[in-house]
Amino acid sequence: MNGVARNGIGFDTHRLVPERPLVIGGVTIEHDFGLAGHSDADVLAHAVTDALLGAAALGDIGMHFPDTDPAFSGADSIELLARAAVLVRERGFEPVNVDATVIAERPMLGPHREPMVANLAKALALGIGGVNVKFTRGEGMGYVGRGEGIAVLATASVVAAAAER
Ligand code: MG
Prior knowledge:
Layout: E1 5-18, E2 22-24, E3 27-29, E4 33-35, H1 43-55, H2 61-64, H3 77-90, E5 93-103, H4 113-124, E6 131-136, H5 142-145, E7 149-160
Helix pairs in contact: 1-3, 3-4
This protein binds magnesium ion.
Magnesium ion is lined by residues 12, 14, 37, 43, 46.
């Protein structure tokens, strides 16, 4: 276990619907549509949370923060990510880095990259060099390409923390 890096993957997707805020990576973005969900539906925060929990073999976001629980109605998913990071550290792992690809046809997300990275890094208690966020499109194909939803793929790595070595 000593110094061994462990990896986790995460995937999430939410539908784009009218009359919802569009929150991605803790950034509220001006758009005609927002993501549907029980929480704030922050698809990026959710995928990163699953990747991080996966790296620590701690299950998934739904096990820890169930969308059937009224306590998580409208929840700030960056806050849930921060709580997941606490669980991971309690398990004896130190987050090292996360990388994510947001797949969205519109709006343009590139201009929001910096605050997204900052929000994720803060929640994870990582330096901004530990977080990377990328953007790509569906090229008109499938539900993402038609603008019906946004999807995110993420990975996270952790190492056994010093106290556990
Ligand atoms: Mg989700």
